[in-house]
């Protein structure tokens, strides 16, 4: 039987037009590297299983480190396990940063994170081939634990890089195997102290850029390879408890019920109409719902659920939250139930830098497409402190976190070409004067 990673490579290069191999960027090299990472942590379902701080993630990081060194980069690993390859600039103390992650969700896809890491290194490879040295320094980075599948968190490496981690909070974290965060760090040759003190000198950094698959269908609908991210949506989680009265399903008349599930159902159904009234980028989702006492012949007396509300602007997200509150008040009156509300999490959205968006648009010209990111990324953490840009690559059927995740090599390479030009412009002191 043919090795799956070989099949994966052959599918990538099938029909690929080598005209995209220019300016030192190589589609074949990119395909080989995507296939090589695909082979690490390959599951029986032909997905990727590289949880954070696992031997699989470590193996992937070591491979990436080798590629960085091959591209002429000086490589270091910081106290959080982030792998950083550096090219020293000639005329500035500032550094342009670019990267992503190689950890995955259980049985995930082969492009999420991996493409961004390979794209960042491909820029250095192209420069080495051309003998080009940037005026500003350039770093490609692999962040640890972006997905959060192991510790039910996420963005650990980027938070550490930004100096956001606190020992008191990290000490309490337990992974899916029952191991403490500190124990897992020790297994990886790290310490709690090294992780929480891994913060970089941000004054030395100019900006951050990241390539990622879209995880949506807009680019596919528009038949465009690359999208310019306008911002990363910040989630607000609203925990709700609908309290009615449990009763016998046969003996309680329909006009004398306080059915918590019926009220919750009316809320969920009406919720879908609200985001568009707040903004074109707002979304709201109920993905979790629990019914009590959950008996076949019992009118539900209580229902709990969580509403995930997101938008790329705080103002419009807050507008949506107010509309949800008004809807809940209407549901209480209509269904005779009481509803308890609690905001369990609220993270501010992070807009992408306008100048970097403009640079991307100038490169793409008439094909420029602007998209919000509904999912969180390391760029959301970095963007709190530095000018940030993200480029999306077309994703087939919008599938992500799934073995069927797929982006055509043509689309990957088109995006990498845009990234390279953006980084070169940002690394040029002369051009920005």
What oligomeric state do these chains adopt? single chain
Name the helicity range.
25-40%
Question: How does the helix and strand content classify structurally?
Answer: alpha/beta
Tell me the number of structural domains: 2
Residue fraction in strands: 15-25%
Could you tell me the mean pLDDT? 95
Biggest sheet, open or closed, and with what strands and sense?
9 strands, mixed
User: Poorly predicted ranges (pLDDT <50, ≥5 residues)?
Assistant: none
For CATH, the homologous superfamily of the largest domain is named as: Zn peptidases
CATH-scheme architecture of the largest domain = 3-Layer(aba) Sandwich
What global shape is seen?
A: globular
- Class of the largest domain, according to the CATH hierarchy? Alpha Beta
What is the gyration radius calculated from CA atoms?
24 Å
CATH topology (level 3) name of the largest domain: Aminopeptidase
Distance between the termini: 58 Å
In total, the number of strands is 15
Cofactor: Zn(2+)
Protein name: Zn-dependent hydrolase
Keywords: Hydrolase, Metal-binding, Zinc
Family: Belongs to the peptidase M20 family.
State the main characteristics.
Aminopeptidase, 9-stranded mixed beta sheet, 15 strands, 2 domains, alpha/beta, 22% strand, Alpha-Beta Plaits
Describe the structure.
This protein has helices at residues 4-13, 27-38, 55-70, 114-130, 156-161, 167-171, 181-187, 192-196, 218-222, 260-271, 275-278, 314-335, 354-364, 378-382, 409-426; strands at 74-77, 83-87, 95-101, 137-143, 205-213, 226-232, 234-243, 247-248, 283-292, 298-299, 302-311, 338-346, 350-351, 370-373, 388-393. It has 433 residues and is an alpha/beta fold. The protein has 2 domains: 4-233 and 349-426, Aminopeptidase; 234-346, Alpha-Beta Plaits (2-Layer Sandwich). Strands 1, 2, 3, 4, 5, 6, 13, 14 and 15 form a 9-stranded mixed beta sheet that branches. Helix 4 (114-130) crosses helix 15 (409-426) and helix 13 crosses helix 15 (409-426). It is globular. The mean pLDDT is 95.
């Amino acid at each position: 039987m043919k090795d799956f990673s070989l099949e994966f490579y052959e599918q990538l290069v099938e029909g690929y037009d080598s005209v995209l191999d220019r300016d030192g960027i190589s589609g074949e090299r990119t395909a080989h590297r995507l296939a090589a990472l695909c082979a690490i942590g390959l599951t029986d379902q032909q997905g990727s299983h590289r949880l954070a701080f696992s031997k699989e993630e470590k193996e992937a990081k070591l491979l990436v480190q080798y590629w960085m060194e091959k591209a002429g980069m000086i490589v270091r690993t910081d106290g959080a396990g982030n792998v950083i390859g550096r090219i020293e600039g000639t005329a500035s103390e500032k550094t342009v940063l670019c990267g992503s992650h190689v950890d995955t969700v259980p049985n995930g896809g082969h492009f999420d994170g991996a493409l961004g890491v390979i794209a960042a290194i491909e820029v250095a490879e192209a420069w080495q081939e051309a003998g080009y040295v940037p005026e500003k320094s350039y770093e490609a980075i692999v962040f640890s634990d972006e997905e959060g599948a192991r510790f039910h968190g996420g963005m650990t490496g980027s938070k550490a890089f930004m100096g956001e981690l606190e020992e008191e909070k990290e000490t309490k974290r337990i992974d899916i195997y029952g191991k403490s965060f500190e124990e897992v760090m020790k297994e990886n040759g790290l310490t709690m102290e090294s992780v929480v003190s891994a913060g970089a000198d941000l004054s030395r950094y100019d900006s951050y850029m990241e390539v990622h698959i879209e995880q949506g269908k807009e680019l596919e609908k528009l038949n465009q390879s690359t999208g310019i991210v306008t911002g990363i949506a910040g989630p607000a989680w609203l925990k709700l408890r609908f309290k009615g009265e449990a009763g016998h399903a046969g003996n309680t008349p329909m006009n004398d019920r306080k059915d918590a599930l019926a009220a919750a159902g009316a809320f969920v159904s009406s919720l879908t109409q609200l985001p568009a009234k707040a903004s074109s980028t707002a979304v709201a989702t109920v993905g979790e719902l629990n019914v009590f006492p959950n008996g076949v012949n019992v009118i539900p007396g209580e229902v709990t659920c969580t509403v995930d509300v997101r938008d790329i602007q705080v103002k419009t997200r807050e507008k949506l939250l107010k509309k949800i509150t008004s809807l809940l008040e209407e549901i209480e009156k209509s269904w005779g139930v009481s509803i308890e509300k609690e905001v369990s999490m609220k993270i501010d959205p992070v807009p992408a830098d306008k100048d970097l968006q403009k640079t991307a648009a100038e490169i793409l010209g008439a094909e420029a497409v602007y998209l919000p990111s509904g999912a969180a990324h390391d760029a959301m953490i970095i963007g709190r402190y530095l000018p940030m840009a993200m480029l999306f690559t077309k994703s087939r059927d919008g599938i992500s976190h799934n073995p069927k995740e797929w982006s055509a090599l043509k689309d990957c390479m088109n995006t990498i070409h845009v990234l390279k030009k953006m980084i070169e412009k940002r690394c040029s002191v002369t051009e920005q004067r």
